[in-house]
Amino acid sequence: MLLETYQAKGLLTVTLVNGQTSDAGVYAYRGDLVLKEGTLREGSTTDRKPPEALFIHSALLIENDKIKFVNGLLPTLDLLPVFVEKYKDDIAPDCNALVYVENIAKGMQVELEGVTYKLIPFKEGLVWNELLEELYIEKSELKNQSPENKVTIAYTAAKSYQPKTPLVSFSEAQENTIVVVKKAAVGAI
C-alpha cells in the first residue's frame, strides 16, 4: 500500500488521519508530507535531521496506489515542482489538486506532468477549514463521518470545483509571486 511505503520511508509526519475509507481499496491521509528529507546525522546511515521542506497540512486520497486527490499548503510556489518530481510516479493522471500557496497574491492554475494544479492564495487560518469553505462543504455534511470519509467528501466536492482562474505556465506563475511578511507575536495576548 502506498501510504505504508511512504511511512516506511519517513515521508509522513504529523499524521492526523491515515487509514482506509468506507470504500474498499481507498485510503485517506491528513498530515504533513515530506518534500525534502533532512540530511543524515553525522555517523548515521538511517537517522535524519528534520525535513527541510514539507507539504503542510496535506490531505491525500489514494485509490489503487495512485494519488487521486491532493490538498495542502506550500510556503512557496517553487516547492510545487519539488512535490511533482518526488511523487509524480504515484500521482493519478486524473488527480484533483487544490494547493494553497503562501507567496501568491491571486489564484491561478498550472499544469505539471499532465496534472492541473489549482493554486489558491493562503493568508492565514487552518488549511482544512479553508478547503471546506472553498468547496462549500457544510459542517453538517461531515457530522458522524469517520476522519477518512471526511477526506472522501472533500475529494467528491473538489471534482466539481472549477475556479475562474487562468491556466498559466509555471514560469508565468513564478512571476506572480509575492514577498510574504510574517508578523511576530510574542508574549501574552
Description:
The protein is α/β, with parallel strands linked by helices. The protein has six helices and eight strands; from the N terminus they run H-E-E-E-E-H-E-E-E-H-H-H-E-H. The protein has an eight-stranded mixed beta sheet. A hairpin with a 2-residue loop joins strand 6 and strand 7. It starts with a helix and ends in a 14-residue tail after the last helix. The model has no long low-confidence stretch (mean pLDDT 91).
- What's the gyration radius in Å? 17 Å
Low-confidence stretches: none
Strand count: 8
Share of residues in helices: 10-25%
Chain-averaged pLDDT:
91
Annotation keywords:
189 residues; alpha/beta; globular; eight-stranded mixed β-sheet
Summarize the structure.
With 189 residues, this protein is an alpha/beta fold. It contains 6 helices and 8 strands; from the N terminus they run αββββαβββαααβα.
Walk me through the topology.
Layout: H1 2-8, E1 12-20, E2 26-36, E3 53-63, E4 66-74, H2 80-87, E5 91-101, E6 108-112, E7 115-121, H3 127-134, H4 139-142, H5 147-159, E8 167-168, H6 170-175
Parallel strand pairs: 4-5, 5-7, 6-8
Antiparallel strand pairs: 1-2, 2-3, 3-4, 6-7
